[in-house]
Give the backbone structure.
Amino acid sequence: MRNFTLVWLAYLISSIGNRIGDFAITLWVWELTGSATSLALTGFFYQLPRIVTSIFAGIVVDHFSRKYLMILSEAAVVASTLMLLMLYLRGQLAIWHLYLAVSINGGFEKFGQLAYRASISLLVDNQNYTRANSMNAAIANSSSIIAPAIAGILYPIIGLGGILPIKLVLIAIALSILALLEIPQPTVEQKKYKEKKISLVNRLTSFWLEVTFGIRYLWQSPNLKALLIITTLFWLPYTLMDTVYQPLVLARTNSSSQALGAVSTISGFAGITGAIALTVWGGFRNNVRGMLTGFTSASLAEIVFGLGQGLSVWLPAQFCASLSYSLIESSETALWMKATPAKVQGRVFAAHFLVYDLLSMPVILLAGVLSDRVFEPAMRSPSILQYLFAPIFGTTSGAGIAVLYILSTIGMLLAGILGFKMSQLYRIEEIK
């Protein structure tokens, strides 16, 4: 666990740096546009290159140094952040520059994230999968505690131009840790060919088989296919909900960075609490039940969050939801690792991410359009939506986003309920 803990520490530091920068950029974009669509487009352009790299990332991760891929990923973030900083200091930063930067980050981060995830099973034994993945859940949650507090305090004082250098310093520390570590590689079977020359057709066929290996492996396994279906059914409505989460808080609080910071901080605090509890406890013996219990409990908490209109409801609701997300992440990842041999995890995990990324991109775009063009206008003027939902959500700014938020969380809840009925999921636990 020693080397895993050090890699984990590097990603924790990097995550804090990225989260500080992302929080400040969110405030900058909202100040500039006041549009949910603009924030949604940030997520869209982050996901777009991930689809392309997902096609090749699994092959690359399974055949090349995972350590150097992690370093390359972090170095790309440094380069894009430097670009934003220089443009901002010159007074030339525009929102399209931000979209370009997140596209660069998204493409390269895919390699680093996949290399890290596929290395876990080589750094820890299978009895510690849940604990290791609970520690991973703590990465995002710890950064959610620290980063909003730092960015929320410093943004009004030093602005985006002062916060981006802090991000760069933290990522540089993470890079230094990764550079000093030894990260094992899986054993790759080398194929020996008697022929000295391979035809172009055979080369293309071999390449196509490599590219599609992960998808074929997933679809040929009834258990993994069931896991893919149920997790996709949960995470797609979650993506819609998560895309409008920040606009909802900002719209309901008259663009209060303190309110958004408070919700983010309590989310992180709850998440790290859950991760620590899972690390000590070890999680459910049955990871399927753990994942599905997390699905339903997170959905119920998010429904309460969407019904609220202030911190008195948001903070306890977000605390309960984030506890559940820690359970979901550790249980779901343990299932993927248990059902997939280490030597093919790069390609299989890449296929999993590719499916999700392809489906989530239109959802992200739809979230912004529905918020700004459909639900918000409908709740502010006489309409069937206003007639049905105004007594619950009101008609002030953010009411329409709240309706969309609730609809998304209901979709998450239905996925959790459906999962309990899928017998194929439970067969994963029978794998030795």
About this structure: DSSP finds 14 helices and no strands in the chain. Residues 129-180 form the longest helix (52 residues). The CA atoms of residues 298 and 321 lie 4 Å apart.
